[in-house]
Task: inverse folding
């Protein structure tokens, strides 16, 4: 998520916050959205406007922005900002090093994403596709996480068994439950320390998660 873009838009509405504050609010919002929505209601899509609006609302709440008019203005800005990518225009600062580590180990790397058909172009713009063997986009294959079928499609494309793979994600109910239902081992990213105790492997950052997953080979 482009935290700087969100901070800049908030500044236009008189709310001064640093990008790293937006980042921490987003880390907490992931947990809240998962616990309040995805963990409670099976089949809720991550790709609806309702889910995106709820997500942004939780981020703003975490920043102390509760004025209804400001929240609606930010929601409208998000709906029209930088289509079709939106605010998902940045990559983890450890992404290239982490993917290079995967490749250097002899393993294959792929992305499995709930998206609208744009994730491969996003990854290409971010300079990450040279490090990936393939991308599975829910908008293209017609099934999204946590449905185990999207992971099964990736395993078939990679030509490996689920027991030979590991998946790293940042939503417990979407990523971890989906991957484990398909027979993969999973690592939950928890950079802010907000997830608490969960019944899965966890890591504070992407590089640590990759190193953990590679240790299972």
Result:
């Amino acid at each position: 998520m482009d935290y700087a873009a969100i901070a800049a838009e908030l500044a236009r509405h008189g709310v001064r916050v640093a990008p790293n504050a937006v980042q921490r609010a987003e880390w907490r919002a992931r947990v809240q959205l998962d616990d309040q929505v995805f963990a409670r209601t099976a089949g809720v899509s991550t790709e609806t406007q309702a889910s995106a609006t709820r997500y942004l609302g939780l981020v703003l709440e975490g920043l102390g922005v509760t004025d209804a008019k400001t929240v609606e203005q930010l929601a409208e800005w998000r709906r029209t900002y930088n289509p079709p990518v939106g605010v998902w225009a940045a990559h983890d600062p450890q992404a290239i090093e982490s993917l290079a580590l995967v490749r250097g180990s002899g393993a294959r790397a792929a992305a499995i994403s709930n998206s609208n058909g744009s994730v491969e172009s996003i990854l290409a713009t971010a300079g990450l596709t040279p490090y990936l063997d393939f991308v599975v986009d829910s908008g293209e294959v017609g099934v999204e996480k946590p449905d185990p079928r999207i992971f099964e499609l990736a395993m078939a494309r990679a030509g490996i068994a689920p027991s030979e793979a590991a998946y790293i994600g940042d939503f417990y109910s979407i990523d971890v439950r989906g991957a484990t239902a398909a027979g993969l081992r999973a690592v939950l990213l928890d950079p802010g320390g907000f997830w608490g105790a969960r019944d899965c492997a966890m890591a504070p950052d992407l590089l640590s998660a990759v190193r953990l997953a590679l240790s299972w080979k």
Notes: The beta strands are 110-113, 134-137, 166-169, 185-189, 201-203. The chain has a mean pLDDT of 94.
